[in-house]
Amino acid sequence: MAALTGTDGFVAALRAQSRRYHDQHPFHVRMNGGRLSRRQIQGWVANRFYYQESIPLKDAAILSNCPDREVRRRWVRRILDHDGAPGGRGGIDAWLHLAEAVGLTREEVLDERHVVPGVRFAVDAYVTFARTRPWTEAVASSLTELFAPDLMAQRLAAFERCYPWIDPGGLGYFRARLEQAPRDSEHALQVVTEHCRSADEQARAVAALSFKCDVLWSILDAIDHAYAD
Ligand SMILES: O=C(O)c1cc(C(=O)O)c2c(n1)C(=O)C(=O)c1cc(C(=O)O)[nH]c1-2
Could you tell me which residue ranges the Thiaminase-2/PQQC domain spans (predicted)? Predict the structure, then answer.
């Protein structure tokens, strides 16, 4: 096959980062294989809440650094998807519903008592990246969502099949992301292909996505370690 060049080569290099995505982390492999204990699922849900509540801070940082009005008016939707529009409910509420469905109280999730240091460091590194790096790199770092829908679909099936003690009414978060993630990642891909033109800009975008794969992997390393059998 001829070598890919230009935008095609750039998109292929971004997609190739899927090999480093956290769907292949041993903790997720055990989760989707139905091999996690109740305590481990609860630990994952409580720790991942810290990621969920930090995503709008990350997206607000991208907005604050982005001079392009067209990008901002679409990107702002991500914040409402998580925080909820006034009077409505968003992804953070849905995650709290998931927490209750796995037997946690809202209080113990909201007060972050279960969040382990490695998860906090990894998530904070993602927010700091968005605050301090050029906005196009921060957009590129969100592109792990290109790889998320398959993992979400597997997770939904695994939760329903392998963990009958989880109230299926609490799985709405994942159903919503099945629609939101492709929409968001398609937009992010359009933005980076339009704005990252030089070889150097494209290499930085791929490096940003690689960094994000490390963030997600580190989150699971920390959870796996904290909740080992
Ligand atoms: O459960 C997952 O495996 C997973 C992965 C990712 C991702 O790949 O970054 C996100 C989410 N979930 C998610 O729920 C979410 O809202 C989200 C936002 C972002 C982002 O970087 O802007 N990634 C993700």
Answer: 14-221
- Report pLDDT digits (tens) over 42-53: 999 999 999 999
pLDDT tens for residues 167-191?
999 999 999 999 999 999 999 999 9
Measured CA to CA, the distance from residue 172 to residue 180 in angstroms comes to: 12
Distance from the CA of 181 to the center of ligand 1, in angstroms? 8
Of 50, 144, 212, 219, the residue with max ligand 1 atoms within 8 A of its CB, to mutate for a pocket test, comes to 144
Per-residue tokens: 59 = 């997206």
Overall CATH class of domain 36-226: mainly alpha
Chain segment 100-138, per-residue pLDDT in tens: 999 999 999 999 999 999 999 999 999 999 999 999 999
